Structures are given as structure tokens and as C-alpha cells.
User: Fold this.
Amino acid sequence: MIKYVIKGGRPLDGEVTVSGAKNAALAVIAASALVGDVTRIENIPKIIDVTLMLEIMRELGARVRLVNDSTVEIDSTNVVNTSASYDAMRKIRGSYYFIGALLGRFGHAVVAMPGGCNLGVRPIDQHIKGFEALGATVEVKSGFIHVTANNGRLQGAHIYFDVITVGATINVMIAASLAEGLTVIENAAKEPHVVDAANFLNSMGANITGAGTDVIKIRGVDRLHGGTYSIIPDQIEAGTYIAATAAAGGTVLIKNVIPKHLECITAKFNEIGLEFTEYDDALLVSRTKPLQKTNVKTLPYPGFPTDMQPQTTAALCLAEGTSVVTEGIYDNRFKYVEELKRMGAKVQVDGKVAVIEGVESFSGARIRACDLRAGAALVVAALSANGTSEIIGVHHIERGYENMVEKVRCLGGDIKCVEEPDSDELSDVG
Ligand code: EPU
Assistant:
């Protein structure tokens, strides 16, 4: 087991290059199973979740070749297996995209119910509603979801989602790409990775319009073809370095970003007191004054992202005055607050609302990451803290952040990754 040891109190200064977007990469990898040809995917982040998705691809019969650190070639021509094992699937939520890919291509899929960060109830009823509308029968048996197209091939349909869901929007888009006729998704999610998944599918021959708006139209095609695609930069990784700069202070040039995707984050951090200079594909962030209180509510894109909520809460613990953070997506995404309290934070959580009374500083402590973004929030807090912090449970962080330790070090942060053989802490699934 490894832990991060962070000596806090040093401002961050320098440059950091953001990797490819985790949640776009997971969708694109699974969607490549639909293609039935060779896809070369560039700007893939080197993270555990990507490794797990590629393992599932191999298990399904694809040939997967790492071309270099950030490029992978997937030949899904010989994918024959339409069922994926429990062990691989339960570890990662993004594995639900294999349902759409296998169903769309073969008219049949058997996939273990997906895992992922424990953020409260995370149903997949909207995915199921979408597949059923496309003419599939869905059964959940012994932890597996069995999906079969009634006529062998999915049929285009009109689908209105009851909630805005990234996962179901992408999954239905994937499955409907090879369906017969037109599919219309209403109340679709608009996140950058929804658009990225649509762009990937289109570059492989699909016919999808409207991604990035709340109505997406997918005209089914008979086949897709291989090609090369580059994943967008990770909006949330960039946002995490913004939050870290807010907490620790300093000036950081964040490279390889799409500034438009970051506006929902920079607008809020600007209110809190950070200054930004925008370049074509980079963002300069600096903290020149004390942080100010604010109110934040997480919402679907272009609202403030839930995946930035914990890191933002950590920064707001150091803002003057009382801030209120409301979680608008998940039921239970404040578990990490108990760890921040151990570092001296003053936060009261009532259901989906956290009331934060700003303190001067955090003090270093031994703390535990309970999920991916919770872990990122603890890094943000520890970088600014007086004294040394030890973060355990960092496998959660490494599920979604490429080389965080090296990247923070390049910014002057005092962080190291240390083996801890005798720890008896829980090691739960992400
Ligand atoms: N929901 C339903 N029914 C469904 C699907 C979703 O009720 O069938 C609800 C969820 O319970 C949640 C809301 O709708 O309250 C939004 O869920 P969504 O489907 O958008 O989330 P997801 O696909 O499960 C992805 C990301 C999450 C990110 C959310 C929201 C992946 C693999 N995961 O999850 O990423 O928080 O979208 O943007 O893409 C993370 O990266 O830390 C992370 C948790």
C-alpha cells in the first residue's frame, strides 16, 4: 500500500501539463469495441481506470497495443465475446459503456453491474430505459445485466431522459450509432466528454448531431470504420490544479487545456479571488490576495461540476467568511469533510449542503481518501497545511490523476509517494 506524504505551506509555482480527460477516454475506449476495426486513440491518460478499461477490451477479444505513453491502438475486429467478467467490470463505473458498444454491434451483451466511486445511490435506470426504447430486452440476473435486441438489431427511437445523465446519454449514443433509423435523445447531458464521445464516433463514420446541446440526433449507419482520434484535455484535472493554487497560493501555468471547458470553474474561482489569464490552450492562474467566501451549487454542464466540489470545498475552508456548497448531483459526496475537519476545517454538513466557516490554515494530519475527488481535495488541503500530512487510500487518486505526485513536485510542492507495508486501513473499491 502506498501513501502520499506532503509537507504543506509552499506556494505552487511553475507549469503543469494536463492529461487527456478520464471520463472521455473511458467512453471512447469502450466505443472502440463498437467499431470493429483499428482505432488509434491519442492523449489517453495514464491512470488506473484506463488500464482497467483496456483489460476489459482484451478480455472481450480485442488486440490492445500501447504505442507510447499516451497513445493506444485497439483492434476490435476480433471481438467475439459479448460478455465481460464480474471482476473487471465491478471495479469501474465506466464499464457500463461496454453494454452500449456490445449491444449496438452484436445485438447482445452480458455485463456485470458497474462499480465506481461510492457517492450514494447511482442507478442505471436511464441507461436501461434508453436500451429498451431502442428495442432491447433488459434483465438483471445475479449481478449481471443481460441486454438483447429483440429483432437482432436496435431500432432508432425517441428517448426523453428523466434526469440529465452523462453516462446514459453517451451509452445510448454509442448503441444507437449502429441502430436502424433515427434516434433522438432529449434532455441530454452536455458535458465536454459527451461531445468528445460523439466526435470520436463521427470520426469513425457515425452520424451524430447536436452533441453539446440538450437534443442529440443519431442517424444509424450500417458500419463504422477505424481511424485516429485525440481525447480532449481533462477539465477536472485542470480544475484541481486551480483549486490547489487557490489553497496553497502561487502562480501556475496550466497547459493543454480548452479554456472554454474551464469557464464554469474559473468563473467561480475568480469570485473567490484568483486571477486568470487565458491563452489558446493554456491558462495562467495566480493568487494575489486572500480568498473570499462564496456559494457554490453543483449542476450538470455548463453548471459547476460535481467532480470539482470536494477540491473547491477544501479551498473554501481557507476563505474569509462563511461559504455554502450545495451538491446538486449526488446524495453522498461530502464524506471527505470528516478528514478536512481533522486538519482543522470548520464545516457543517446537512445532507447535500456544507456550510464552511473559513479558517486561517489547515494543520497536517494523517487522512484517508475515500474516493477519487475526495483524495484530490485532501491533496489540495495538505499542500496548504502547516506541517506534514499523510494521505492514505491514494489508489483512489491514481484511478483518475496521471502522475499527480510528479506534477505537483514540478510546481514546487513537497510531496512524495511512500510504501506503507503494515497499514491495516481499509482498501475499498473506487
Ligand atoms: N442517474 C440516474 N439514473 C441513471 C443514471 C444517472 O438516476 O440511469 C443519476 C445519478 O444517480 C446522478 C445523476 O443522475 O445523481 C448524474 O449521473 P450521471 O449519469 O451523469 O453520472 P455517471 O455517468 O454515473 C459520470 C462520471 C462521474 C461524474 C458524473 C457527472 C464517468 C465514468 N463518471 O458518472 O465522474 O461525476 O458523470 O458529471 O464518466 C469522477 O470522475 O470523479 C466521477 C464520479
In short: The pocket of EPU is lined by residues 22-23, 26, 93-94, 117, 122-127, 163, 165-168, 189, 191, 306-307, 329-330, 372-373, 400 (CB under 6 Å). Residues 127 and 168 are 5 Å apart (CA to CA). Residues 22-230 form a domain with the UDP-n-acetylglucosamine1-carboxyvinyl-transferase; Chain fold (CATH 3.65.10.10). Residues 426-430 have pLDDT under 50 and may be disordered.
